[in-house]
Amino acid sequence: MEPHVIHIRCPEIEAIDEIGVGRAEMVLRFNEGMYKGRFLYVKTDIEGERIGSGNPEEFNTTTYIENAGLSEIHCMILFNEELSEYILVNATTQNSGTWVKITPNQFSCKKVLPNSFFKIADLDFFISSGPSYSLEQVAKILVSEKFHRFFTNTKEFISLNTDELELNSHDKYELKEEIGRLKSLPENLRSLVFSAQDINFEVHYKPIRIGNTGNCDVTIPYSSDYFITLQYIHPNYYLEPSDNCPVYQKLKHEEEFVLCPGNIFKVGKIEFLASRFNVGRWSHIGKRQAMEDADVICHNLFTYEDLPIGFYSVYDGHGGSQCSQFLKKTLHSTLRRLILSSPSRCSDVMNTLRSSILLAFAEVDAKFEEENPDICTSVGSAAIVCLILGDRIITANLGDSRAVLCRNGQAIELSIDHKPDNSKELNRILSHGGSVMLGRIDSKLAVSRAFGDFQFKNGSRGSLVSIEPDITQIFINPVEDEFLVIGCDGLFEAYSSQDLVEIIRERLASMPETEQDPNRVIRELVNEAVFENRTSDNVTALLITLSSAISL
Question: Which segments constitute the PPM-type phosphatase domain (predicted)?
Fold first, then answer.
């Protein structure tokens, strides 16, 4: 059976509340500890998931873990069907507690409560409330900061409606200067607005920066260049970590936390990664001298508070690994920034995503040329990116890597291979004065769209190699759609799309329903492609299961 090729442009305007939520499953993968690599699907019944060391018959634990420093019922995960939300609840009073990792710009993690703990690596920090001050004390503080220069009766100033203040231009300048010199204020002045005609200043505590760089207020003994900023903005404290900073917030007893795809939390000696889908990945150098592939699994871009977007990609480099590694570091973060900065982010989600993808591809390509002038002419990479949000999959493709959906056993190709001898690609290349011989542009390059390869982009003939991706969309059928496989051309040299789907489907279905492991299956297929001499190329693949169990 030949695969069906899907090629759908994005629809008309769709606001964020018009995007379907899709299947509401949650997978917990053991990220660290003795069970690393194992996983479980969170229960959605009324009692939810109960994780601990207590005997299941006595404590009704649903995930029983021994020798990991857990209390009998350490934490629970409850499903709110009405909101399609999973709620993590700290159920222990032990000091080990339940810790949630804070990531940069993560919506639900930044605010922290007074009298609470956070952790950077293995260092614990405690946030406590400071003293309160009376109005008389505040008046004295203002006097000590020279505000009495402007007001003869400080108490009167405190009770005065500051909108009624009248100052001449010189006093306005002096007041602005004095406010600028304030370095700290007591707790009840951490957010204080002064307004007098066109003057409007907000004054609060200077943020505290904790890290190991020279400009940090608190130095910690670690070699990595990460830091965290602790800031008070009335009436709350906020934590903002740098990229890759291992900072965790401790939940209080019975405190609730809305668990989203991409969240990481620790209980005892165990660390869990929450995701909407179970994902496996594997790569092999094959018979090549160097590994030029790269891949990214990002379960949530955190661009929408109530709409997680998973980002899954494979980059197939050529001429070297520099371009694929550059994409691995920059493409998803660039896309995230562009989505967040779009004025139509919430009012027109799908077209925002499409325009952001186009801009991200162009921007990252230009950045690669700028930062790598010595190699950018001959080094490049194909790219296949799948975004999964709500009830749909968006695919963006450059080159000959491929994304294939399994729908009730049939392969549906979500991308089109960009080969120079493809009729559409051939016509474009010829129209720019290029040639195609033996399936290669000017007898050299075997793909017609790619990152890098600037020898085919900056010449007098224009861009023989395009940076514009094909973007497609398909709605997920919750009954028939079983998994998505993303791979470089080495994978599809070894297997046709339909053969690949059939083999994966058969191997997943042979496992017990709660133990169908995509990582094990894709590892087997990649290794068989190499060791059975089906391909000599690098092979990299991702396997994303769209349902918890497949049966034939």
Answer: 278-546
